[in-house]
Amino acid sequence: MPDMTGPTGATSRPERGPTLRRTWSAVIASFLGALVTVGAVAIGATTYQQALFARTTTALEEQMAAVIELELVIGDVEDPASGVMYAVGGPEQYANQQAAYAEVVARMDAAFDNLEAELASTGTAAMLRPARDAWEDFDADLATAPGYVASGEIFVLLQAGNDPFNATWRDLTDARRTLTAVRAELLADLHVSIHDSQIMQRTVVAVVIGAVVIGLLTALSAAQRMRRRVLRPIALLQTAARELHGADGFSVELGESVRELGELGLALSETAVSVRDSQDRLRDQALTDDLTGMPNRKAFGQALHARLADPTIDRVAVLFLDLDDFKDINDTMGHAAGDQLLTVVAERLRRAAPNGAVVARLGGDEFAMTLGLTDDPAIASRAALDALEALSSGTVIAGAEVDIACSIGLAISALGAGPGDAEELLGNADFAMYTAKRQGKNRIEIYAPGLLGERPSRAELRRDLSGAAARDELVLHYQPVVDLTTGTLLGAEALVRWDSPSRGLLGPGEFIAVAEDTGAIAGIGAWVLDRACRDLAAHPERLGGWVSVNVSGAQLNDGGFVDIVRGALTRHGVQPVALVLELTEAAAVTNTELAVRTLQALRALGVRVALDDFGTGFSSLSYVADLPLDVIKIDRAFVADARPSGQAALEAIVTLGRRLGLVLIAEGIETIAELDRLRGHGEMAGQGYLLARPMPLEALTDQESLLELATKS
């Protein structure tokens, strides 16, 4: 087969040849033909030989039996014939001998008739005629015996030594001899038949051996064709595949082959051209983020290594950027809207980056920027401020106004740092970004080991937090809620803690943000709900009349959340009215319509709903009117504000809540002055460090101390 690539790299169609199916069919047909031939010849010859031998031996056996029968009858003739001829016993004995002789004569005639019939179709039949003639002569001579006996002549002749029946006995002896010759002839025929059978067997063996040889030759011929048309082309294709990424001018020359392999060789040549054309594109794609067109994590790592290895650069700065509450956008508006927002963020970061900076998307909602610093390290801080400002204005996504917020961590390498410090530098920026989220989000935090201490990276927190509930590392602390007028313990708020083996006891502010970003919040929330119901059922005297549990936006937007709540209540036998679900305004307004439906379904169960941190979020008054609420928890900002304006705002909130028939709970009561001001607004519940800090269930035993503080004037 000629070379499949021309001078311009174009491929030509392979010459037509036998197809693989046809080649295989020929091989199989040849082999099956040989097998059928061998089988047919062997079976036919063996069957014929067996049938012929059976017929021959059966006939010879029957003939031999007839001869033997006739010989036996001749032997039986002698005694009665002798009595008839010599009348040895007188008249009475003569009569008996004559009757016996008559019976033997009948048997003799029947035996001769049977033997003649058996030998009628053989060459031995002619030999029987003299024997029968001798017998008939014997029988005729015996008919003269009565005359000799009656005249007494027989005795005279016998005394003279002359037996008149000598010739008669010779006739009988001749018959016997003739039958002996017939038997010898039959035995000879039997030997011939056995000899013929042996010859036939040797012939069958020879035919089978010949057929096997023919089959082997056919198989060898077929194998040679397969090697030439299939195996050799396959080996060439394997070699060609290994050379696929080789130099230009790649081609596959198969020689003689089946049509399918020829077409495969052509396809391989065409693929080689396509692969070479796409290799550059693949290299680019391996370093580019598909969504934003920015460098990806791998490309950013290469750029960071290059800057750390550049001797003209004194220090290298890394900015680690992570969008705040991006998961809410995905959950409420869909991933398409989230992708659109990421594209907007990428474009703004590109425009805000200083000259020479490399901006990359690391994955998800994480971005990074690296730049070399020569004279002024403050360039890195300005770059972080520019990025934060560029993202501060909102954008329209899917027809809705969306705010953009971002937490930024900044880390700067030490003098003399090299490429081996790249991973640590990026990790420091990641930790600084995580710290920014812990301290309120939408801000910049600069990594400073002496100030921040050794803390795990957010990636480590994500990894460890994913299995915290399954490892039973989560615990609940409870903060009592009391009636500020009577001092009665009303209930308690369940607050989750993470008892990390490597970090100690962590409060929610140290890991809840990570849980929300990773989606682990749903599992943690379900665990908190179940454990709070269990504790309330087991120790109602310690928790008062109800327990409240915080609910995230992800849980509220989960279509199965109502079933999760119902299951926890049923499992532990808790009355629905004894469960209060707290949600923030931010969680409620991410998808108001879905939130309202979920809350209505929960209230239909009998569960009560509380709005947490009221007054600090969105348009609080309108949402109080829209959402199906039972409780308002007044934010500490209003509790602590002693100014007249602050007290007026607090009075407005209290008035609104009472007119709507809602229970009011003041949060964050830390001083007696704050407690007194709240009591001045009438009947109200409250919680805070002044009354009791969050504590394990086992510590909620001494109620008198906190009640005394709650009623203190």
From TrEMBL:
Domain GGDEF, residue spans: 314-449
UniProtKB keywords: Membrane, Transmembrane, Transmembrane helix
Gene Ontology CC annotations of this record: membrane
All copies of domain HAMP, residue ranges: 228-280
GO biological process, one term: signal transduction
Transmembrane segments: 24-45, 203-223
InterPro entries, A to Z: Cyclic-di-GMP_PDE-like, EAL_dom, EAL_sf, GGDEF_dom, HAMP_dom, Nucleotide_cyclase, Rev_trsase/Diguanyl_cyclase
GO molecular function, a single term: cyclic-guanylate-specific phosphodiesterase activity
Pfam families associated with the record: EAL, GGDEF
Record domain EAL: where: 458-708
PANTHER family noted in UniProt: CYCLIC DI-GMP PHOSPHODIESTERASE PDEF, SIGNALING PROTEIN YKOW
Record-given protein name: Diguanylate cyclase/phosphodiesterase (GGDEF & EAL domains) with PAS/PAC sensor(S)
UniProt source species: Euzebya pacifica
